[in-house]
UniProtKB/TrEMBL annotation, chain A:
It comes from the Bacteria. Transmembrane segments: none annotated. The lineage of its organism: Bacteria, Pseudomonadati, Bacteroidota, Cytophagia, Cytophagales. It catalyses: (2R,3S)-3-isopropylmalate = (2S)-2-isopropylmalate. Belongs to the aconitase/IPM isomerase family. LeuC type 1 subfamily. Catalyzes the isomerization between 2-isopropylmalate and 3-isopropylmalate, via the formation of 2-isopropylmaleate. Keywords: 4Fe-4S, Amino-acid biosynthesis, Branched-chain amino acid biosynthesis, Iron, Iron-sulfur, Leucine biosynthesis, Lyase, Metal-binding. This is 3-isopropylmalate dehydratase large subunit. The keyword Lyase applies. It comes from Dyadobacter chenwenxiniae. The gene is leuC. InterPro entries: 3-IsopropMal_deHydase_lsu, Acnase/IPM_dHydase_lsu_aba_1/3, Acoase/IPM_deHydtase_lsu_aba, Aconitase_4Fe-4S_BS, Aconitase_4Fe-4S_dom, IPM_dehydratase_rel_enz, IPMI_cat.
Automatic annotation (TrEMBL), chain B:
Its EC number is 4.2.1.33. This is 3-isopropylmalate dehydratase small subunit. It holds the Pfam family Aconitase_C. It comes from the Bacteria. NCBIfam families: leuD, PRK01641.1. It catalyses: (2R,3S)-3-isopropylmalate = (2S)-2-isopropylmalate. Heterodimer of LeuC and LeuD. One of its GO terms (biological process) is L-leucine biosynthetic process. The lineage of its organism: Bacteria, Pseudomonadati, Bacteroidota, Cytophagia, Cytophagales. GO terms for cellular component: 3-isopropylmalate dehydratase complex. GO terms for molecular function: 3-isopropylmalate dehydratase activity. Keywords: Amino-acid biosynthesis, Branched-chain amino acid biosynthesis, Leucine biosynthesis, Lyase. It comes from Dyadobacter chenwenxiniae. The gene is leuD. The keyword DNA-binding does not apply. It is an enzyme of class 4 (lyase).
Length: 467, 198
């Protein structure tokens, strides 16, 4: 293999194959395993029924996020089913010696936010979690992807899963992003071009100037949404930006270990001449602030455009009509000026400090619109502390917003944060599926800037008009 | 989890000709709060199947008694979105053993194979033929032969072959799962682990 030009993906993948099975999947070694309360309890039951243990408990990290309330976290969780799942996570972690950041722990938060911010996520690793947005960690040049509960059980019991190697795709975005265009817009744009199935079967590497200049937080937003175009995951080659982000974080390597790791990380890039199974190139200048109008993340467009007609989109007309009917929208309408009811800033896509800085940049000196209920939810306690320290909380409070406590919140609405049926929410999360944010909820996915512009005007607004 | 062996399935089918059926539709997030794998079939397609007051929606296919069987036939890009295995559990628990589509999302496909549901990917043309056959006769039978990797419309005899990884096929035919395999190679995994830089 050494004489051959390899992709970043090949380098990391091939380094983790324990055994190749003829006409079968690879036995694939996992460096880091994240678990949360929803997709792990049945896996632990499986271990018990087979009477086997956890092979490397130090490689698994547990955090509570999906079911957690975002107010009064000091009180017992009211929903007995949620409380039961949280308790199961705690009990199982304790029983098997897995480190557990439960509700109230200083490092608790959304799994894909706390991994990177605590230096648990590192370049060249393989990382899995029973959550499709595990692709977030690819921002560090790791192979990271979501798995099912059967696979959670596999990792707990053997630190491996059985995985056929995906094909490789490279998505290049060249040039410079315009004013008010954020990483969220970049990813919504790519998904709108490739569709929700466009990258199924592939692992994506993002390359080009736009990603080279992007912050780690922005890269995480992009990799986070790779799953929304069907990709198993997305990754970006680690560089000085990556190393600077990791250096000094709580669990990051230090001293000699840092030097050794850094030397390895610098080899993690796609070689000149390496071949991808598919490659796309987009021009940054074509990307506007984006918004979705339909019921999957691929149904998005530049905010100033009109909703396409069924003739302009791929796929069946009946499916398209069903989608617009659910949203209460019509073909060829403008999105600008549409009245909204809720705004949600948070989630593993946009719940990091940079997202709240962006949100506050528009909110500053303005007031929350009266018709809008806003849920401002940090991705972790560390982000919450940063929001307070940096004076962002003051800006939000003066404008009439309240800060809630960390968790997945309205992204999937497993807790009480549900958008009521028929109401419109501009959401910085990752999915606008029917009922995703509550039964009957209507979700418009957008960047923190678009969310802020909607929060202060009460309608869909181009954030460039407010910058 | 052990599952039933899968060799040959002959059954009527339930048509769901909608594209991009995501796992949030198959099982909405609010039904993921159990700590045991049971009862998920009751909430399969919950929000498409029931009104807000829990009365069945007459126009949804699972509420139409003329459609039944162990085969669910979905539109293109079936199972996109969340990785929740609960979606596959709900389909299995409801009684389906096979899902047919012209395209499956990766994680859903993997989850299905891991719990004993066979995802059969056919060409868009053959998928249309299946939908037409069900439309013409709700009692139309289909035969899925895992050994031969074929799906057949019994009435017309039209058949198409489908792909499946050889290892997974062997597992499904024998009702084996991956954990048995991995447990048997722990020594090799230990040696591998010892060489990791982190």
């Amino acid at each position: 293999m050494s004489n051959q030009a390899n992709t970043l993906f090949d380098k990391v993948w091939d380094a983790h194959v324990v055994r190749k099975i003829a006409d079968g999947p690879d036995v694939f070694f996992i460096d880091r395993h994240f678990i949360h309360e929803v997709t792990s309890p049945v896996a632990f039951l499986g271990l018990e029924s087979r009477n086997i243990g956890v092979m490397y408990p130090e490689r698994t990290f547990a955090t509570a996020d999906h079911n957690t309330p975002t107010i009064n976290q000091h009180l017992p969780v009211a929903d007995p089913l949620s409380a039961n799942q949280l308790k199961a996570l705690e009990t199982n972690s304790l029983k098997y010696g897995i480190s557990h950041w439960g509700l109230g722990h200083a490092r608790n938060g959304i799994v894909h936010v706390v991994g990177p911010e605590n230096g648990i996520t590192l370049p060249g690793m393989t990382i899995v979690c029973g959550d499709s947005h595990t692709s977030t960690h690819g921002a560090f040049g790791a192979i990271a992807f979501g798995i099912g509960t059967s696979e959670v059980e596999m990792v707990l019991s053997s630190q491996c899963i059985m995985q056929p190697k995906p094909k490789k795709m490279r998505v290049n975005v060249v040039g410079e992003l315009g004013k008010g265009v954020t990483p969220k817009d970049v990813t919504l744009y790519i998904i709108s071009k490739l569709t929700t199935a466009g990258a199924t079967g592939y692992f994506v590497e993002y390359a080009g100037e736009v990603f080279e200049k992007m912050s780690m937080e922005g890269r995480m937003t992009v990799c986070n949404m790779s799953i929304e175009m069907g990709a198993r995951g997305g990754m970006i080659a680690p560089d000085e930006t990556t190393f600077a982000y990791i250096n000094g974080r709580d669990q990051a390597p230090k001293g000699e270990k840092w030097d050794k790791a850094l030397a390895y990380w610098k080899t993690l890039k796609t070689d000149e001449g390496a071949v991808f199974d598919k490659e796309y190139t987009f021009d940054a200048a074509d990307i506007e602030p984006m918004i979705t109008y339909g019921t999957n993340p691929g149904m998005g467009q530049g905010i100033s455009r009109n909703i396409p007609t069924s003739e302009q989109v791929e796929g069946g007309k009946s499916t398209y009509d069903k989608s617009l009917a659910y949203m209460g929208f019509h073909e060829n309408e403008s999105m600008l000026g549409k009245k909204i009811d809720y705004v949600f800033i948070g989630s593993c896509t946009n719940g990091r400090i940079e997202d709240f800085r962006a949100f506050a940049s528009i909110v500053k000196g303005r007031k929350k619109a009266d018709n809008v209920t806003a849920w401002v939810v940090p991705g972790s306690h560390i982000v919450e502390a940063q929001i307070k320290e940096e004076g962002i909380l003051d800006i939000l409070t003066e404008a009439g917003f309240e800060l809630r406590q960390p968790g997945c919140s309205a992204c999937l609405a497993m807790n009480d944060d549900k958008i009521p049926a028929g109401k419109y929410a501009v959401s910085t999360s990752n999915r606008n599926f029917e009922g995703r944010q509550g039964p009957g909820a209507r979700t418009l996915l957008a960047s923190p800037l678009v969310a802020a512009a909607a929060a202060v005007t009460g309608v869909v607004t181009d954030p460039r008009d407010l910058l | 989890m052990a599952y039933d062996k899968f060799t040959l399935l002959r059954s009527t089918a339930v048509p769901l000709p909608i594209e991009n059926v995501d796992t949030d539709q198959i099982i909405p997030a609010r039904f993921l709060k159990a700590t045991k794998r049971e009862g998920f079939g009751d909430n399969l397609f919950r929000d498409w199947r029931y009104n807000g007051d829990n009365t069945p929606k007459a126009d949804f296919v699972l509420n139409n008694p003329i459609y039944k069987g162990k085969i669910l036939v979905g539109g293109h890009n079936f199972g996109s979105g969340s990785s929740r295995e609960h979606a596959a559990w709900a389909i299995y628990d409801y009684g389906f053993r096979c899902v047919v589509s012209s395209f499956f999302a990766d994680i859903f496909k993997g989850n299905s194979l891991n719990i004993g549901i066979l995802p059969v990917q056919v060409s868009p043309e053959f998928l249309d033929k299946i939908f037409l056959a069900i439309e013409a006769d709700p009692n139309a039978e289909f035969e899925v032969n895992l050994e031969k990797q074929t799906i057949t419309i019994v009435s017309s005899g039209e058949s198409e072959s489908f792909d499946i990884n050889g290892y997974k096929k062997h597992n499904m035919i024998n009702g084996f799962d991956d954990i048995d395999y991995l447990q048997a190679m722990k020594g090799e995994i230990k040696e591998f682990e010892a060489e990791r830089i982190y």
